């Protein structure tokens, strides 16, 4: 097989460049203002309480972190699984992964009760804590992906691409397993305490990450006059669909298992059939909008069609992903702790009652600020480094792809 | 490559032997082998004055160490002593931040103690100048003890405990002691 | 200096330090065992201020639910007076170190009330999950938050099965000298460690006893002669959520 000659180039100031920068800047400014406001007044100005301790900022943060790990998938498919068409997109994949992770971590760290103790957070570790391991995994991810990008972009280091790719692949599986285990290893709550959270999060990462990647590359390509090939978009879209199906599978297994056990019947009743915001977000948000509709969009025949269906599917998967994380993170906390099974419990500390959570504006601002940080990093990186090939049409990525269209 | 590996291995070996020895040594002394009290300890640099004992504070009017030493090292002393209190449960005046504050107090014209939010506060006066954020007073009070701040549920006399007991003999003893107390 | 000789020099130093510590330790043990033979009054903590915690002790509470009435919350008031927290009318965000819980059997209508606070588990989930190690278990079994290194991530609050922990949502002033607490850190019942360390009992226990109810007993679970150990040996006692295998220090009788 002839070796591909790919020429990469930086993006210039293409269509709408300054308006994009202004928009991202506005969101980041709002996020920064929200952070300062909450840090000064205390978390009383947010909707988070002693019952619901993690809220919207954590939904955003976990989404970004999970998507970061999945965004690296394209690079992994290129280097580890040797698929030709994905190889030219690996650099962008690596950078997007780092950018999304940075955005997610920014939100997570800025929501801490004592963000001024960040140095303590990254130097003092309790190694029994999966949270501590996650901090190490996140920093290591940055280092490994950075090294992976380096060997891809520097001359003469081609032989290290595959080993670094494998290292990054394994690291990212560990990272996502760790993120899922943050919830899966909590024995106290009915809504968590499930080993399946780890593989569920792996599937989520692959699905959300691919969705983010498709949207970012498609939009960047369009704005810088190097449109992403239609067949390639469909190919990635179908892969994203398979991952979304995997998410539905793990979700089904988790809930079916819980429904079978009388012990978990109450929490399942609450989440799935409670008629509350969590049930609505689960069925309409996660299952319908984030699962069934995107699957229908990408897997029904599309001969000759443009790839706008894939774009829509990616957007819906992202929306569904937020809904899913809201149900997992907030729903899992809203259901009361069961200290006395079968008894009715009440106290002055909201025992036995479903927790109410009203997200506040500063929380949304912080979360969206994190998304904007991720996007801004991506913009600056693609401006500074040669990350995207000059030509990402089907023919340029993989000659066989173009043949398929006929 | 091999040279790097050798160095890494030797550091790992040293670190593991050192920490094992420390942990073993810590166990011997019955110290809780918590990293914050059995890890590498801060070594106090030499100072001109000897460490002033608790009982000498009132007599000499001197602080723990001389001014120059305290200016440079108070943060390390504070960190060290707070770990001693938290992890070893030693609450002597020597280790008490409140004890420092009880002495290092600035009063306003009305004679009331000044809080850290005011730049005339003992700690704030320097910290504001050098622009180093003070962490202590997020949680600790910055003014000396008051009756309100030290108010504590009083310890009940022994007979009350006995009266609350289930056993009749113990209750009888309690009544007897109550009578004695009265 | 080469790696090998540097390593040797350090290992030699640590060997010397270890031998010094071992020697000091053996001497201390020989002397200390004589000193501790002296009987101490309940609750068996008359240790000097300069002495550190004794890991052979394990502090616990025994709560007799039958002695607890629904309209009494003396323990809650005592704790709030002692430690400086109070209910400000915002139950969602107010810190509460101890609360009265009421459980009702839906079939029979039978009700019980009793206080619930940090259970001071031997295997605390909050300690396991804390990323910085701020949530820790002291050698004598008291589970505390080292607020100096707490970063306020609230993961321990997610992990606690007893909802024992509170987050401080607002800036605080006029804290108690013996109970520092501040915005952005997590806190919970300290078993009145500042009282225990000087030989007293926790405020809730003291107040309940002085009010004449005596529902709470405090003592050393490792001491077979302590009142609490004798009661646990005589009567049936329970731990809340014993199924989790946390081996709590707080036990309940007649629950």
* Total number of helices of chain A: 15
Biggest sheet of chain A: strands side by side, in what order?
1-3
In the sheet with the most strands of chain C, the strands line up as: 8-1-10-9
**How many domain regions of chain A?**
1
State the domain count of chain C: 2
CATH class placement of the largest domain in chain C? Alpha Beta
Compute the number of strand runs of chain C.
10
Number of helices, counting only DSSP H or I runs of 4 residues or more of chain C: 7
Structural Rg of chain C: 21 Å
Quaternary state of this entry equals heterotrimer
Instruction: Give the overall silhouette of chain C.
Output: globular
Q: Say what the CATH topology of chain A is.
A: Formate dehydrogenase/DMSO reductase fold
Please tell me the CATH architecture of chain A by its name: Up-down Bundle
* Number of distinct beta strands of chain A: 3
Could you characterize the architecture of this molecule?
The complex is a heterotrimer of chains A (406), B (182) and C (255). Chain A is built from 15 helices and 3 strands. Chain A is mostly helical. Chain A has a single domain, classed as Up-down Bundle (Formate dehydrogenase/DMSO reductase fold), CATH 1.20.1630. In chain A, helix 3 runs antiparallel to helix 4. Chain B folds into 2 domains: 137 residues, no CATH class; 30 residues, no CATH class. Helix content of chain B is 54%, strand content 0%. Chain B contains 9 helices and no strands. The relative contact order of chain B is 0.06. In chain C, strand 2 and strand 3 form a beta hairpin. Classes of the chains: A mainly alpha (406), B mainly alpha (182), C alpha+beta (255). Chains B and C meet through helix 1, helix 4, helix 7 and helix 8 of B and helix 1, helix 2, helix 5 and helix 6 of C. Strand 2 of chain A pairs antiparallel with strand 2 of chain C.
């Amino acid at each position: 097989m002839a070796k591909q000659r790919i020429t990469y180039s930086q993006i210039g100031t293409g269509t709408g460049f300054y308006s994009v920068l202004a928009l991202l800047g506005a969101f980041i400014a709002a996020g920064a203002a929200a952070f300062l406001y909450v840090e000064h007044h205390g978390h009383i100005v947010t909707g988070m309480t002693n019952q619901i301790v993690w809220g919207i900022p954590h939904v955003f943060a976990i989404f970004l972190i999970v998507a970061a790990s999945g965004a690296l998938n394209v690079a992994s498919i290129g280097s580890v699984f040797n698929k030709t068409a994905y190889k030219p997109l690996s650099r962008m994949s690596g950078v997007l992964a780092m950018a999304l992770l940075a955005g997610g971590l920014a939100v997570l760290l800025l929501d801490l009760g004592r963000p001024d103790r960040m140095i303590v957070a990254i130097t003092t570790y309790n190694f029994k804590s999966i949270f501590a391991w996650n901090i190490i995994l996140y920093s290591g991810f940055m280092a490994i992906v950075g090294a992976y990008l380096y060997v891809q972009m520097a001359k003469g280091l081609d032989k290290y691409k595959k080993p670094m790719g494998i290292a990054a692949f394994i690291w990212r599986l560990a990272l996502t397993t760790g993120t899922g285990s943050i919830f899966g290893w909590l024995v106290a709550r009915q809504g968590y305490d499930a080993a399946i959270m780890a593989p569920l999060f792996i599937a989520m990462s692959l699905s959300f990450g691919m969705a983010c990647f498709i949207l970012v590359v498609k939009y960047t390509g369009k704005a810088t006059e190097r449109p992403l090939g239609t067949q390639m978009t469909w190919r990635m879209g179908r892969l994203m669909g398979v991952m979304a199906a995997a998410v539905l599978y793990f979700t089904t297994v988790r809930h079916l298992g819980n429904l079978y056990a009388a012990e978990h019947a109450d929490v399942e009743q609450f989440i799935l059939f409670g008629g509350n915001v969590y049930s609505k977000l689960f069925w309409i948000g996660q299952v319908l909008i984030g699962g069934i509709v995107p699957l229908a969009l990408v897997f029904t025949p599309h001969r000759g069609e443009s790839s706008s269906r894939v774009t829509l599917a990616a957007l819906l998967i992202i929306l569904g992903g937020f809904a899913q994380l809201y149900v997992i993170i907030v729903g899992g906390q809203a259901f009361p702790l069961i200290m006395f099974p079968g008894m009715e419990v009440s106290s002055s500390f909201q025992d036995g009652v479903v927790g109410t959570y009203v997200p506040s504006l500063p929380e949304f601002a912080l979360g969206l600020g994190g998304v904007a940080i991720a996007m801004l990093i991506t913009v600056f990186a693609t401006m500074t480094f040669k990350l995207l090939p000059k030509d990402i049409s089907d023919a340029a990525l993989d000659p066989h792809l173009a043949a398929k269209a006929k | 490559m091999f040279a790097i590996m050798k160095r890494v291995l030797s550091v790992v070996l040293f670190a593991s032997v050192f920490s094992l020895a420390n942990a073993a040594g810590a166990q011997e002394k019955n110290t809780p082998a918590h990293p914050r009290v059995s890890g590498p300890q801060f070594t106090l640099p030499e100072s001109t004055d000897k460490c002033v004992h608790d009982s000498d504070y009132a007599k000499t009017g001197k602080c723990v160490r001389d001014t120059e030493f305290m200016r440079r090292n108070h943060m390390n002393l504070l960190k060290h002593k707070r770990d001693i209190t938290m992890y070893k449960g030693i609450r002597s005046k020597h280790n008490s931040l409140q004890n420092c504050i009880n002495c290092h107090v600035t009063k306003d014209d009305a004679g009331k103690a000044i809080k850290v939010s005011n730049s005339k506060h003992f700690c704030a006066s320097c910290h504001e100048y050098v622009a180093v954020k003070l962490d202590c007073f997020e949680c600790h009070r910055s003014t000396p003890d008051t009756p309100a701040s030290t108010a504590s549920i009083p310890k009940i006399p022994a007979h009350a405990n006995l009266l609350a007991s289930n056993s009749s003999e113990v209750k009888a003893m309690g009544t007897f002691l109550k009578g004695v107390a009265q | 200096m080469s790696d090998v000789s540097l390593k040797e020099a350090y290992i030699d130093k640590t060997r010397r330090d270890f031998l010094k510590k071992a020697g000091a330790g053996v001497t201390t043990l020989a002397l200390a065992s004589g000193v501790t033979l002296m009987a101490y009054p309940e609750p068996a903590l008359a240790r000097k201020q300069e002495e550190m915690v004794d890991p052979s002790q394990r502090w616990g509470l025994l709560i007799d639910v039958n002695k607890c009435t629904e309209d009494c919350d003396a323990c809650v008031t005592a704790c709030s007076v002692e430690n400086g927290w109070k209910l400000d009318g915002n139950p969602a965000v107010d810190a509460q170190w101890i609360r009265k819980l009421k459980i009702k059997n839906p079939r029979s209508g039978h009700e019980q009330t009793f206080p619930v606070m940090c259970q001071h588990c031997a295997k605390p989930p909050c300690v396991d999950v804390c990323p910085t190690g701020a949530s820790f278990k002291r050698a004598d079994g008291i589970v505390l938050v080292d607020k100096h290194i707490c970063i306020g991530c609230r993961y321990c609050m997610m992990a606690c099965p007893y909802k024992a922990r509170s987050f401080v949502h607002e800036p605080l002033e006029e804290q108690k000298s013996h109970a520092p607490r501040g915005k952005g850190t997590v806190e919970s019942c300290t078993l009145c460690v500042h009282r225990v360390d000087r030989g007293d009992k926790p405020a809730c226990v003291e107040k309940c006893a002085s009010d004449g109810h005596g529902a709470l007993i405090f003592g050393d679970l490792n001491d077979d002669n302590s009142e609490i150990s004798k009661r646990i040996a005589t009567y049936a006692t329970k731990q809340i959520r014993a199924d989790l295998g946390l081996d709590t220090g707080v036990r309940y009788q007649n629950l």
